[in-house]
Write the structure tokens for this entry.
Amino acid sequence: MTGASGLLGRCLVTRLRAAGRAVRLLDVLLPPPELLGPDVEARQGDMRDAALVREAARGVEVIYHCAAGQRMKPQFAAMSEDEILAMNVALVRHVVDAAAAEGVRKLVHVSSSGVYGVPTTRPVREDHPQRPLGAYGRSKIEGERLCLAWVARGGDVTVLRPMSLFGPHMSGVFLLLFDWVHRGKNVWLLGNGRNTIQMVSAWDVADACLLAATTPGARGAVLNVGGPGTVTVRGQVEGLLAHARSSSRVVPLPAWLVRNGARALGLVGLSPIVPEHYLLADATFVLDTTRAREVLGWAPRFDDVQLMTEAYDWFVAHADAVAPRSPVLSVLDALS
């Protein structure tokens, strides 16, 4: 498995070990100690090294490819958009080539709902036009193309397109929300919050990965994976505030103001959010997960508020180490 140090990777390793499966991990970061054991072989290295990836695939039955670079992750923050694109595509190419060369039975490739860009239909089906907003989404489209090309040559791949993941050890923009709620600060909302943005628990996506690896009918399938997606953004935040018993209050901001401010701050490298966030934050974005339900027999077990509150509880327990800090956030705190 690749990407074990990330949110989904940690959940997937936990599920695999609970099922009694031996796991070989390959990542740019060493996995956390709690994932290690006699049934886990951990390897650290840069997956842009094709020989390293092929050697790690030797003797493997299933590859779960979860690794990908995003600028919101600290280890990739200094990379340019072009570097993110090139790296992510290289990772998929090397995984597919290694799987083919080593006779791997199955590849489960974790793509992203980011391939769609700003949605034009509700809900979004797998055949929705692909208009990604940044290098991450573009890299996922190219990665899918490489995977499906191997299917055409006889390989067995299932592609999953999850929404934004929530769970323990998560990183990214939603830690800003958790930090504000934890400290009783104003929760700044882009727009009025009456829109719905679907999320998904990393535990539910890990379950979808396991089903994809064992379902013969999933060969060549591209499947959306998301939570229920029935609660508005404001409803999710208010549910979190009630759970946390927080004194925070929700403060809506005009969407145009946030977008213009984020663009300006992005020019000097200070924006805490990227275009994928501020262009979608006031949109309604819900995936149609019918195909995942039909092909895999999968359904999410976490509801819209529960997946957020579970991740928040983990954040509170580790806030001293993971709370986000930046000059921009300091300004917002002063206004709270």
Q: What stands out?
A: The beta strands are 23-27, 40-44, 62-65, 106-110, 157-162, 164-166, 187-190, 199-201, 222-225, 250-253.
